[in-house]
Write a structure and sequence with these properties.
This protein is of the alpha/beta class. It has a single domain, classed as ABC-type transport auxiliary lipoprotein component (Rossmann fold, 3-Layer(aba) Sandwich). The chain has helices spanning 2-20, 51-65, 145-165; strands at residues 36-39, 43-44, 70-71, 79-98, 104-121, 127-141. Strands 1, 2, 3, 4, 5 and 6 form a six-stranded mixed sheet that branches. Strand 5 and strand 6 form a beta hairpin. Helix 2 (51-65) crosses helix 3 (145-165). The protein starts with a helix and ends with a helix.
Length: 168
Amino acid sequence: MPFRRIPGFALSLSALLLGGCLYGFSGGGLPSDVKTVAVLPFENITTDPTLTAEINAAVREAVENRLGLRQAGENQANAVVTGTITRYEPDLPVAFQGAENNKVEVTRRLLQITVDVRIINRETEAVIWERKGLMVEGDYETGKERDGRKKALEKLTTNIVDGAQSQW
């Protein structure tokens, strides 16, 4: 009888699917011995001296709040975050509209920050995560560069946190 096989098949399929749910990944994330971090001031080779403090504050907050690490001095930390700010483009026009007298008005701009970042396990001196040429962007309305900078910093910290957590 075909109807009796269906419940048995459904039961077998359910058991197989539920059993499959027990599968998990291991090995991702930071090493288990990393509990503290020191975020060293990023070297800044751009013309904007304020970037160092803003990037360091954003990275420090992200590793503390999103990775759950406690801040520590460089000599006491389990991990050290270092970086170099290699490029800063605050004013790239991306959207235009026609204006009076046949002029074009820029309505939207883009801000780009490029950094090299490294997270090192201080005890083993192994590189936990590294990314060279990490470029992040933030768009903004003309005259509101601060909005673009905020978006770019959010993307930067997300990339660093995701990178640190994705070690397989």
